[in-house]
Amino acid sequence: MSDITPPLGDEPESPAPALPEPTQVGAAGATSELAGEPAAMSPEPWAPPPGDGEDPAYVPAAAPQFVDAPALSSQERPSRGVWPTRVSLLLVAALVGGLAGHYAAPASSGGNGVSVNQVSSAPGGAVLPNGKTIPALVRQVVPSVVSIDVRGPGSEDQGTGMIISSNGLVVTNNHVIAAAVGGGTITVTRTGSTKALPATLIGTNSVNDVALIRINGASGLPPVTFGNSNSLVAGDAVVAIGNALGLAAGTPTVTQGIVSALGRTVTAGSSTSSETLNNMIQTDAAINPGNSGGPLLDSQGNVIGMNTAVAGTLPDGTNAQNIGFAIPDATILSLLSSLKSGASVVSHGAFVGVEIMSMTPSLEIQFGFSVSSGALVQGVIPGTGAAKAGVRQGDIIVKINSTNISSAQDVTNVITALKPGDVVTLGIVRGTHHISIKVTLGTKAG
Hints:
- This protein is mainly β and 446 residues long.
- The chain has two domains: 285 residues, Beta Barrel (Thrombin, subunit H); 93 residues, PDZ domain (Pdz3 Domain, Roll), CATH 2.30.42.
- Strand 11 and strand 12 form a beta hairpin.
C-alpha cells in the first residue's frame, strides 16, 4: 500500500540527476580450511564489472541473515573464487646487480671468478602523495593489526582484525568469526609474533558484517586511529593491510591503491545465502581472502575502512580486475556501542527495495541536491514495496517514521528491527520538495 503526500504548490519537478551505479561483487574474506578440502571465501568489498552473469559463488563460514539488501542487476555481479586450504608459495628471486644508489662498491670477484657490482645503500620506500613512505606508514600501524584464526566444528577460518582499545578489543568482519558463534574457538596473533592468544566473542552484527572480540587478559595494546571516511573522494591514496591467504599469522601483507569509487551497494552470495552491504568504499588496492577485517588506511595511516569483499571471476569466465570493497569507518564507529554491550544483531528479513548511499556535501554540490545529509536512492528494485509506493532514483530519505536519517547506515539500523509486512513512512526530499511516502516492507524475494 502506498500513500504519497505531495507538497503544496504546483512546481514542475526536474528529472533526477544521473547517479553513480550500484555494484555487485564477491568476497575477499577469511580463508577457510576443511581437512583436505578447498577453502571458501568469506565476504569482502566489491564494484560493478560489465557483462551479464549470475550471483557470485560465495560460501560464508556460517549462513547469517541479512536485511534490506537489494539484489543488483545481472550486469554487475562478479563471482567469488575458491582458495586452497593451505597456500605454499615457492619464491624464486632473481638477483639483479645494479648501479642505483649513492655508492657503488668496486667490482669484486668471488672464488668462482664472477665479478659483480654492489651498493651499500638501502632500497627506497614507495612514497605516498603526501610525502610519507609506505614502510613508515606500515611501521606505524602494524602493531595494531592482528591475524585471526577461528575453529568451529569441522572448519577453520583465517582473517584479520584491528585493535581498537588498549585492553584488547578487536574489530573484524562478522563472517570471519561466524564459525565461533556456535561454540568454536578464536585465537589472534599479533604482528611480529608467533604466539596465538585466546580471544572471546563480544558482539556480532551479521547485517553490517561487523563483529567485536576481546583478547583475553590483554593490556597496554596500541589501538588504531580512525580517520574520516565521509571526507573521502575518488582518487585518494589508500593502503590495505591483512592476513592475505592466511599465509603466515603475524606477518601481514601490504598493498597500495586508490579509492576507485564511493557509495557502492554490494551483494555477494550463493543459492543458499547472501549479504548486501550499502555505502561501501571501492578500491583497486589488492584484497584477497584472509584480508577480511583488516584496515584500509589513508595516507596518514588512519583507518578509513575495513576490507571486506573482492570481485572475482564472472560466470562467463571474465576476470574482474582490481575491484575490492571496504566498510567505511563511519559505519563501524556507529556500531561499536551496541557491539560492546554484547549485542547480536540479526535481520528479520524486512526489505525496502532501494539501493542507497550516504549523502555528503560533495554530492550535494556535484549533483545539485538541496540537502547535504540523508540516504540517497541510487536505484529502486522493481516489484518491491519502494517501487510500488513510488520511490524514485534521486530521492533522498531523511526520515523513517519518527527517526531522522542522516546516512545510509541509519536506514539499515531502522529496517533491521522491523519485519516484512510492516508499514513505514519515508520522509523524502525530491528536488526542493519534502514529501511523505508509505511503504510496505517486503522480503528480498520481492
